[in-house]
Amino acid sequence: MTEPFLVHAHIPKTGGSALNQRFLFPRFGQDRVQMLYRYVFEAAHRLPKRHTSPAMRCFAATGHVPYGFFSRVYPSATYLSVFREPLARSLSFLNFVLATPDHKVHERIGADPARNAADDPDGFVMAVLQEPRLATVQSNVQTRLASGCARLGEMPVDALHLDVAEANMARSDYLIGDQAQLARLIGELRSRYPIPHQQAPTPQPDPRTEKRLPKTLRVDALAPATVAALEQANRFDLALYEQIQARSANLAAA
After folding, report:
1. I want to staple 143 with a disulfide (CB 3.0 to 4.6 A). Which of 72, 83, 218, 236 is the partner?
2. Of 183, 186, 181, which Cα lies nearest the Cα of 251?
């Protein structure tokens, strides 16, 4: 299938839901965007059949999938990701865990660290970092997805993943943005992919009022040793984010 196809490779906790609501759904129509948040691989396998059905055809996809996920089905697809300062992204995810009692992270670390997180935030963060499976899957998430690795890959991210991620981000078929400048990114996307006049955008709630989570965990409330452990666990994401900031600075100067 060689027709253009837009894939929002949604990195968790980077403002991707706001991007969906303010750009992707108004542009293509929510029923024409394949959602890949649950049963990712099963849903992705339906896309070729949907593509041949005028009534169900999709023009875009969004989900926690890596760059290049559709390379065999849509070799000319364009990918889009929003990146975020890594420590803020990690703590946003952990705040989401605390606000979601049935999240599977609780099974991994036990009940006490989460129950005591308000009084002992360092204990909760360290419990997550010291659980081997969580340390592998939840660290350096941005580098993992940008490098094209499977979302729940068993192998830890290493320097090779960082090299591949940086090379991918330099490709013309990978549009990247910074969560700190999300409004500007959405404006640029709307210019590149204008909303058709015949398709009026569906009114959506203001994303600034959505998903407001309790800020139980904050960088300034953590001990220096805990912050250092977070930085070490996400060292490849930190290096990748430096590249994104440098690129943004160069574009602004130009």
Report:
1. 236
2. 181
Cβ atoms of 222 and 125 within 8 Å: the answer is yes
Q: What is the pLDDT of residues 170-224, one digit of tens each?
A: 999 999 999 999 998 999 998 888 876 555 555 454 444 445 666 789 999 999 9
- pTM of the predicted protein model: 0.88
How many angstroms separate the most distant Cα atoms in the chain? 56
Map the chain to HEC letters.
Answer: CCCCCEEEECCCCCCHHHHHHHHHHHHHCHHHEEEECCCHHHHHHCHHHHHCCCCCCCCEEEECCCCCCCCCCCCCCEEEEEECCHHHHHHHHHHHHHCCCCCHHHHHHCHHHHHCCCCCHHHHHHHHHCCHHHHHHCCCHHHHHHCCCCCCCCCCCCHHHHHHHHHHHCCCCEEEEEHHHHHHHHHHHHHHCCCCCCCCCCCCCCHHHCCCCCCCCCHHHCCHHHHHHHHHHCHHHHHHHHHHHHHHHHHHHC
By the 8 A CB rule, do 34 and 61 touch? yes
Contact (CB, 8 A) for 64 and 82: no
Q: What distance lies between CA 23 and its chain's CA centroid? A: 16
Alpha-carbon distance of 165 to 147, in angstroms, equals 4
Let me know if 7 is exposed, middle or buried by CB neighbors in 10 A (0-12, 13-18, 19+).
buried
